[in-house]
Specification:
3 strands; 4 helices; mainly alpha
């Protein structure tokens, strides 16, 4: 592209040089014609008139030939001048056409850039539209899925609550059974101890009684009562504490009847 432009510029310079040469030739011819016309006006025409006045016509053909030559020179100069003007006009038209072509190329480049920018803006707009559409679809899907998930969660909570309630009922029943069994065991243990204690002293005639103040009384054979010290089996601190804990649990079970979820956790 640059080589072609340089070649065109060189051709244009050559044409301009030839046109300048033609203009110089035309100017030179014009100056020569003017000088010849002046010479004719000053010398030849005067001689022609004098010869014509005296009746001498021998100079006429030479003057006519000279004028014909001058007319030919003038015609050739006019033609060359016309050609030069036409060439100058052609060169101007060529330059104007080139400038128009360059302007058109610049407009074409600008239009291509604007087209690319429009395509980029269109792509961005399409991407934004797709993003907005995807968000709307996601929002709709979430709006449809959230109530379903809430219902599923509520059902799971209900089923878990039922399972927990059933477990609590099972635990309460098991605790109640364990408490009843423990109470029965305690009563049986007490009965066993009391029966073993009575078996030790059944051969004696005295009967152990409790007076109003809680003292152990012995009834003698003659009907009189005397206070005696009864030796009880020794109990450890651990047994006393375990009995207290069992009594506290039994009283709490009798007061509440059921065990709450917070107590189990």
């Amino acid at each position: 592209m640059e080589f072609q432009e340089r070649r065109n510029v060189v051709n244009l310079c050559v044409k301009l040089r030839s046109m300048v040469t033609e203009l110089a030739d035309c100017i030179r011819i014009r100056s020569v014609a003017r000088s010849h016309v002046r010479d004719c006006d000053s010398g030849t025409v005067r001689n022609f008139l004098e010869d014509d006045r005296h009746g001498v016509g021998r100079v006429g053909p030479s003057i006519q030939g000279h004028w014909r030559n001058k007319e030919c020179d003038l015609m050739s100069w006019r033609e060359s001048n016309t050609r030069t003007r036409s060439n100058i006009k052609a060169v101007c038209e060529i330059e104007r056409t080139r400038s128009n072509i360059k302007a058109a190329e610049m407009r074409l480049v600008t239009a291509m850039k604007m087209k690319e920018a429009a395509r980029a803006a269109e792509a961005v707009a399409i991407a934004e539209i797709k993003d907005v559409t995807r968000r709307r679809r996601t929002r709709k899907m979430l709006q449809e899925e959230i109530p379903e998930k809430i219902e599923e969660t509520a059902q799971e909570i209900k089923s878990n609550r039922r399972t927990i309630e059933e477990g609590l009922e099972t635990v309460n029943s098991a605790k109640m059974k364990a408490g009843e069994e423990e109470t029965q065991w305690q009563w049986s243990e007490r009965r066993r101890r009391s029966s073993s204690y009575k078996g030790k002293y059944k051969n004696r005639r005295e009967t152990v009684l409790m007076d109003e103040n809680g003292l152990d009384m012995m009834m003698n054979g003659d009907g009189t009562a005397s206070s005696v010290t009864v030796l009880k089996p020794a109990t450890s601190i651990g047994q006393i504490l375990s009995r207290k804990v069992l009594l506290a649990d039994e009283s709490a079970m009798m007061m509440n009847g059921r065990v709450s979820l917070g107590q189990i956790l």
